[in-house]
Known about the structure:
Layout: H1 2-8, E1 14-15, H2 21-26, H3 38-41, H4 43-56, E2 60-62, H5 70-74, H6 82-100, E3 105-110, H7 125-142, E4 146-152, H8 155-168, E5 174-178, H9 192-202, E6 206-211, H10 215-228, E7 233-238, E8 244-246, E9 249-251, H11 256-269, E10 273-274, H12 282-294, H13 323-329, E11 334-339, H14 348-360, E12 364-367, H15 379-390, E13 393-399, H16 405-417, E14 422-426, H17 447-456, E15 476-481, H18 488-501, E16 505-510, H19 514-526, E17 534-538, H20 544-553, H21 561-570, H22 574-589, E18 595-598, H23 605-615
Parallel strand pairs: 1-10, 2-3, 3-4, 4-5, 5-6, 6-7, 7-10, 11-12, 11-18, 12-13, 13-14, 14-15, 15-16, 16-17, 17-18
Antiparallel strand pairs: 8-9
Amino acid sequence: MSLLTKLLKEQKPILSDGAMGTVLHHRDFVVDHCFEELNLSNPAIVAEVHREYIEAGANIIQTNTFGANRYKLGKFGLDQKVAEINIAGVELLKRVISASFREVFIAGDVGPLGVRIAPFGRVQLDEARTAFREQISALNEAGVDLIIIETMADFYEVREAIKATRDVNPQLPVLASMTFTRDDRTLLGDTPEKIAKEIHEAGADIIGINCSGGPLQLLRLLKKMKKAVPDGYYSVMPNAGWPEQQDGRIMYPAGADYFGQYAVSFWQAGANVIGGCCGTTPAHIRAMAKEIQNTPLDEVVIGLEVSQMDVEPVEEVDCDCSHMAEKMNAGQFIISVEMDPPRGLSTEKIMAGASLLAEAGADVINVADSPMARMRMSPWAVCSLIQKNVNIESVLHFPTRGRNLLRVQGDLLAAHALGVRNVFVVMGDPTAIGDYPEAMDNYDLVPSGLVKMIKQSLNAGYDHAGSQIGQPTSFFVGSALSLAPANMETELKNLKRKLNAGADFVLTQPVYDVEAAKKSLNWFRSHLDQPLNVLVGILPLVTDRHATFLHNEVPGINIPTKIMDRMTKSGDQSPQEGIKIAVELIEGLKSSVQGIYLMPPFNRFDYAAEIIDQVR
Length: 616
């Protein structure tokens, strides 16, 4: 304890190790194997990983006991071997450290029980503490230097693990580490500030953050926690970025050099212990050790006052926010592509189309809601599937028509819970033109009213009635704009109402005349006292009949004669001519708008991909 205290008070942070499971997985151990059982059946492979981390420069090595509790081991029929597996994990690590001839701390690794505890599960608090006590007793008996309680999502569980450690050995140092979701909160919705205070008050010696996202998120979380408990000791062990699935394997994008760049940032922000979690390897630890070792003390401001720290830097937008918003705020040209939900249960085609568009370079996928009032799968489910399986952000089309206040708010909260952050608010097509003309067509809110409710109520943490909903939503909200309305003054009045309600961007109907569109945009902007972020509508023409139909039967679409003539003269090459026209329109409007809203005709996503290729 005296040596650990001494090191924690030194100016340079202590370096811990990285992932065990990731390294074993790379050596072809299957993910569902009980890695902790290897302490008994294959201690050599575990010892080899420990040795590599020590050689990389780690001063704290965690035992291979993350899931060595009765509940997790019970899934493999090993619940009677809790003590044996934990003691073996410590003993083999001791032998590795002895052979290294280095001063290395042994951290008894204690992970979640793998079950829900009360009040959110059936396992009672005393039962959870008993399970933790069983594992920690074995680790203590074997002679660990400290206990690391890590990757916890439930503070109730953390508290029981801390209490169990104090029951076993009041003098044994405790590092208690929580994991956070993309919205910078725990799975149960707790903020980093609240967690830091509660872990500190529960009696942990070191407040930790691990797993979660990559280094950028954990640096932001560390600063918030340090502000809440300035005098606490802190540990930071990030994942190597958010995991991605490639060829059936889970991969992590952040490389070793990237981790090395953040080591000094963690140090300056107040981290006393630095390491890695999922996706990290000895190479990541080596890179961090090198940066810390090669950085002179006089180049790092140690003990910087939190009030002087950049706790909320502009470039570090809260990860709960829309990435589309981040790109737009950074001045990037946005390419958004519209897709219709399937009519039935099959999502294979829409996933394939979304993958094609993402590979081509689209920024977001717009998912329509019952276009032409025809029955289709709910778009927020499609948005969630696209974001999860294709790794591209979506924009949820959200009509007010056919929804009362209860359904509006319930659907929006559901969408937010599924990770959808961009919403395009419209009135929606009347049911009279669709599959069910007799269906209810009422609505409680017009589009500007819904924009106001989202931006000024839900995004502030309240429902429409003014009651708190807990965590605020973080929607980035769009609305509609016609660049060729029947009455410009009326359209301007509606636009002002939407912008004053909080609309962040607008989508327009398809345009085919660059100069006319620019003229309308300039006129609208000249009558506004706030920015107008526009994604201009682009609908590629396929044939001359397609062009004629749009010009004559779709309100708000005017196709110039010269465009009609080009489509007529192109003959069999009309689809290629339509793509060429679309690219010309985009190039002509690029300097006047923030992006495009591309609408692939007849689900020809290959046309959209070709346009994106040329524009990018």
